[in-house]
UniProtKB/TrEMBL annotation:
Keyword Membrane appears in the UniProt entry: yes
Transmembrane segments: 39-58, 79-104, 124-141, 146-166, 172-191, 203-228, 248-270
Keywords carried by this UniProt record: Membrane, Plasmid, Transmembrane, Transmembrane helix
Protein name as annotated: Transmembrane protein
Keyword Transmembrane helix: yes
Originating organism: Caballeronia insecticola
Length: 278
């Protein structure tokens, strides 16, 4: 009983990880765009101060706590290099936090904070639902057909329902659902062929190729329509095109950076060295 629950929880959180990554680039883009509109020296000083606390206190403590386990130690770094590296990442993290806060305008002094937060959550759901259910469908593809096919169909239905619920226009619904179907099919084929620690890296590669091919094709067609002065029919608006590009970047990134669903199996080689099976 414990093993199926563990697999289910791992699958759920892996899919959630991918979904959050897919939704993140648009938040970061819109937030940074809003933040730089009123960024001041005071904001820079605050980011530097908070970043220093994170870099010199919080992160080292967490690193020491992680080192209490069996994880391999990181190579030693000089104090200057370690400080600059940690401070840089900490300042970036603070700026990202501020950007998202500005984007959703969720400060306590804002009377519309709850409404803005609800809108932000709704936007995140629009970007995250499709990758989440497609990832679940990929995992289900390893099972019997009476499970794999309904879950795959559910992923397509949910993608369509999201567009209907949030009142997407017809061309937005098509440009979202059609490449998602191709990604779903490609991932299911990859998962059924081989299930190891690099399975979802291959899924990420397939997703990236399909996304680039789709955006290149539709972008070219839209350019031709624009040059021909055809206004009655549009495949993409300019903002929609770049939004989709950021979405696919986040989706592929999530598949790459999420912890592997299948841990690597160490193999003993002739020279007694240990490596991961590929």
């Amino acid at each position: 009983m414990a093993m199926p629950l563990r697999r289910a929880s791992n699958g759920f959180f892996f899919a959630l990880w991918v979904a959050v990554c897919a939704a993140s680039p648009e938040f970061l883009w819109q937030g940074l765009f809003s933040l730089f509109g009123h960024f001041s020296l005071t904001d820079a000083a605050a980011a530097l101060l908070i970043g220093a606390i994170l870099a010199f206190f919080v992160e080292p403590v967490l690193e020491r706590l992680r080192g209490l386990g069996d994880a391999p130690e990181h190579p030693q770094k000089s104090p200057a290099f370690a400080a600059c590296e940690a401070l840089s990442f900490a300042v970036v993290a603070v700026c990202v936090h501020e950007a998202i806060t500005v984007y959703i305008a969720a400060s306590h002094s804002n009377e519309q904070a709850a409404e803005n937060l609800a809108k932000a959550v709704a936007q995140a759901l629009q970007w995250a639902v499709t990758p989440f259910f497609i990832t679940i469908a990929w995992m289900a593809a390893r099972g019997p057909s009476w499970i794999a096919w309904p879950v795959a169909a559910l992923a397509i239905v949910v993608t369509t329902l999201v567009g209907v619920m949030f009142q997407w226009s017809a061309h937005v619904l098509v440009t979202s659902a059609l490449p998602a179907v191709f990604v779903l099919i490609a991932g299911c084929i990859i998962v059924r062929e081989q299930w190891d620690e690099s399975t979802f890296v291959r899924c990420a590669r397939a997703t990236g190729v399909i996304a680039l091919a789709w955006l290149a094709l539709t972008g070219t067609l839209q350019l031709v329509l624009w040059l021909a002065h055809v206004q009655a029919f549009r495949i993409y608006e300019r903002a929609e095109f770049w939004t989709d590009l950021r979405f696919y970047i986040g989706w592929v990134t999530g598949l790459v950076v999420a912890p592997a669903m299948v841990p690597g199996v160490p193999v003993r080689l002739a020279d007694d060295s240990w490596r991961r099976r590929r």
